[in-house]
Design goal:
The protein has 524 residues and is of the alpha+beta class. 17% of the residues lie in helices and 30% in strands. An 8-stranded mixed beta sheet has the order 19-20-22-21-23-24-25-26, with helices on both faces. A hairpin with a 7-residue loop joins strand 8 and strand 9. Helix 3 packs across helix 4. It is globular. The relative contact order is 0.09.
């Protein structure tokens, strides 16, 4: 790591020798790039990746000769991303020893290419899965006789499996209208078992083993939920809210069965919308305490995330970042118009870049929300990214823009929450920070709160809670994290006028709580 916590050097150490004899293999001088070291599942090659937010470069080394030199696959080209997997080949007619390459080369939603190990440069790449405007190719996994393809289609994650020896393709089906699915730990190359992790808004995290030959799906583990949780008492659905420009924004909802759409329901709306991250519609045990009190829980899948492919991300970054905020407002207005809630019963929250979202929307439409929670919020955007000595600042230029350029500076300043605090009434607001946070320094939320206190015209609560031990990910340990979640829930429920005594069926096993995943955990 360098002084900004960026992985920038790769060293080779021979077991049994002194550290001072280690050899520096590679050093990344560009502050916008960081290094990553992996092996292929085949265990045949070691991969060294240099990556920025929008550009990647991969080198490979034969694992049988670890003292050899890394060879470059394709040199960095601004805006070109690619990742590499390996297959040794099944027979001569299969194509032999090859790399499989997922890339956005002239393919905004990515495509799959293949290249011979002996000549892996881009001019030798051959197309396997073409680019599609309506489907995002997220990643692939290679096994001896199977190619597993992870995609996003119509805003939902999908898994397709191609049997390499026959060409047969199978697509996995999932039961709920909105859900989250990801690959599990699968180190074995010569295996026909795909392990994947599934969750939805009603059902806790499940680990499945799927036989890619027999198509048998076996549940290996389901996260237990304490307190007599019964998923049949709740429903989930997926709605589409019209944005200001007519774009349809997905909303994932979970709510108690029998909820009447008369505007009387308290509703908790969360969002993120940055880095191309898709907010997972997954189960959260701590969400149950809200559901038990009749709170409708919703996720706004706004632009800037990756839910509907790479264009969805591109439409919410750089000089289009305002779409993230107006999309969130549009989702809130749609839920109100459809009778799910009303402004006096609407709570919102988000963390890190999601905290920026919360800060921006309460500047834009403060009367639309009753209570807001901003966890480790990235609210002093311009000042932070202008300081290259802070961790991540230079790398963040590929996400938000370089504020040293006038167009980006003025645009970023137009939405930066700290720079747009106005003398107006704001919702009840809880702001959290961490003294040891390397991503969002504690002084960002602190100075934002100070400015809000000097400008706001209301008598609503404004609390700043700083954890004097934790960093960006919040407190360590299950019970400390539960206390943090309980504090935030208590603040929210009290500001919504709900009884904090409530039911005792709260599902207190927090290990299945994915609600704060996009912002790397709540921070208080």
């Amino acid at each position: 790591m360098d002084e900004t916590n960026r992985p920038y050097q790769l060293w080779r150490h021979r077991l049994g020798t002194l550290i001072h004899s280690d050899e520096l293999i590679y050093e990344e001088a560009d502050e916008g790039f960081y290094l990553n070291l992996t092996t292929t599942r085949s265990q045949a090659y070691i991969l060294l990746s240099a990556e920025s937010k929008i550009t990647s470069e991969v080198r490979f080394l034969d694992a049988r000769t670890p003292t050899g030199e890394f060879q470059l696959i394709h040199g960095r080209q601004p805006g070109l991303e690619y990742s590499v997997a390996h297959h040794p080949g099944m027979a001569a007619d299969f194509g032999g020893d090859r790399f499989y390459i997922v890339t956005n080369d002239n393919a905004i939603n990515f495509k799959l290419m293949t290249a011979p190990i002996s000549k892996p440069s881009k001019d030798q790449w051959t197309e396997i899965i073409p680019h599609r405007d309506d489907i995002m190719l997220s990643a692939v996994d290679l096994f001896a006789d199977h190619l597993v393809i992870y995609e996003r289609e119509q805003g939902l994650p999908t898994i397709r499996i191609q049997k390499l020896s026959t060409g047969e393709v199978t697509k996995l089906a999932f039961p709920e209208p909105t859900y989250a699915v990801s690959s599990g730990f699968m180190p074995e190359f010569h295996s026909n078992i795909l392990r994947f992790i599934y969750s939805d808004l009603l059902n806790p995290t499940c680990v499945f083993d799927y036989n890619m030959d027999s198509h048998e799906r076996v549940l290996k583990k389901q996260q237990p939920v304490l307190g007599g949780y019964d998923p049949s008492r709740y429903s989930s659905q997926r709605l589409m809210a019209p944005a200001a420009d007519g774009t349809a924004i997905p909303i994932s909802l979970v709510y108690p069965k029998g909820t009447v759409l008369d505007g009387s329901n308290p509703l908790h709306l969360v969002g993120y919308g940055s880095y191309g991250y898709s907010y997972p519609a997954s189960f959260s045990s701590t969400r149950l305490s809200r559901l038990e009190r009749g709170v409708v829980c919703a996720i706004a899948h706004v632009r800037g995330g990756g839910e509907l492919g790479r264009p969805w991300y591109e439409q919410g970054k750089f000089l289009h970042k305002a779409n993230t905020f107006t999309d969130f407002v549009a989702c809130a207005e749609f839920l109100i118009d459809q009778g799910w809630t009303q402004p006096s019963k609407l709570a919102i929250s988000g963390g890190s870049a999601g905290g920026l979202l919360i800060g921006a929307v309460i500047n834009l439409r403060p009367a639309l929300f009753q209570v807001a929670i901003a966890q480790v919020p990235f609210v002093d955007v311009v000042t932070t990214i202008l300081d290259p000595s802070l961790p991540l600042s230079v790398m963040e230029w590929d996400e938000w823009g370089n504020p040293n350029e006038p167009d980006f500076y003025h645009y970023m300043k137009s939405y930066s929450p700290y720079d747009n605090v106005q003398p107006q009434a704001y919702p009840h607001l809880l702001v959290t920070a961490g003294l040891n946070d390397p991503r969002v320094a504690y002084w960002e939320p602190a100075k934002w709160v100070a400015k809000l206190r000097s400008h706001k015209t209301d008598g609503h609560r404004l609390l700043l809670k700083t954890n004097m031990e934790a960093g960006h990910g919040g407190a360590s340990g299950r019970y400390q994290r539960l206390r943090e979640a309980a504090f935030e829930d208590a603040f929210m429920l009290d500001c919504l006028g709900l009884n904090c005594g409530g039911s005792d069926r709260r599902g207190l096993d927090d290990s299945s709580n994915d609600e704060h995943q996009p912002q790397d955990g709540a921070e208080t």
